[in-house]
């Protein structure tokens, strides 16, 4: 049944958090480890935690948050974590090195993390302010109450990061940053996403892989034991990326970590050949299950209309098929593409109700749907990001920048034609320029956008910060719009 966590004798003495235990799928209901606590915060409690976290901006101000922690980070996502892992694994063969991917899963999703560890971490970082002290005060004197047939039963709450908590991820990341900040030897890489940690170890020899892996795991174990965190050996494994017949023996303490041909990391199956075929096959099975469910609520001549079917495909099926495409979409093979096309064709027929002999290309034209990756845009293309370091600033008429290097763009349409141009200025002189002529049917807006695009491409090759000036406000507004329908944007 539901539990209640409250506090007494401090600022949040009147706050009460309802914690509901939900059984994990496929687990025994009688086993206590089969349940995960979910926090249901009241409005007042959520507002308090949100306000404290907004003021608790030390991570950005002092840059304490480690860049290899990808959970609950601005401009970071699981796609970034996957892309970083795959890029490191692909570098191994190019450098003629053997590589090992070790996946470690913290048991209970930091459920055993002690409150004392959180306070010690604050103390080690010298984080003392009114907001940090208030945030830490929410951890003191916590009690858990369970209603019984006789009376409520109370006991002290001294550990855990229940899901649904606003401050839970922040506390968890602060503790995880301690192990991420360790100076690892060359050939050892560690990154984290929530309770999933991934080691990538590279070396020229099998024995070198074993020694580096042992060194890395021993340090990780010391940190885990200090914070009373436990690694789930059943969910932890490693994959060898090498032509070695006999791989290294990798142990967690005295227990050997199982070697597999593929493992699942952040929902993506990474195999030992980086072929991505096991992942696509698994996602195809999930999509087929969803297809069978859809067939129950609509057929060719009955049920939900075509617009709803197309919307379900875009918001559910396509996300299933393209999960993690940022990591594997650029390594598409004809076999993977055929597998994805065959799955998509079933849904195209389901949406249109067309004959089975209808070509797939025609079905895509009718529905307006694109093929699966690599032509399908990833989430990074759909969300505005400051990581590109492109900032927009208005300036007055006849403005001329200082002697620093800058690019000025312009596009126009006259009776003589349509064109785009940009000039690179430094020390008040033009050092480079480019002119482009467009078709007469192109608009002035398209010319302005093309000029900005050419300037960005030129700036990216300079490998230094540079300002780009334009007099087209409509172009800037289109660039800022994450839902812009202009393909060139």
UniProtKB/TrEMBL annotation:
<dbReference type="InterPro" id="IPR036397">
    <property type="entry name" value="RNaseH_sf"/>
</dbReference>
<feature type="domain" description="Reverse transcriptase">
    <location>
        <begin position="1"/>
        <end position="270"/>
    </location>
</feature>
<dbReference type="InterPro" id="IPR000477">
    <property type="entry name" value="RT_dom"/>
</dbReference>
<dbReference type="InterPro" id="IPR012337">
    <property type="entry name" value="RNaseH-like_sf"/>
</dbReference>
<protein>
    <submittedName>
        <fullName>Retrovirus-related Pol polyprotein from type-1 retrotransposable element R1</fullName>
    </submittedName>
</protein>
<dbReference type="Pfam" id="PF00078">
    <property type="entry name" value="RVT_1"/>
</dbReference>
<dbReference type="GO" id="GO:0003676">
    <property type="term" value="F:nucleic acid binding"/>
</dbReference>
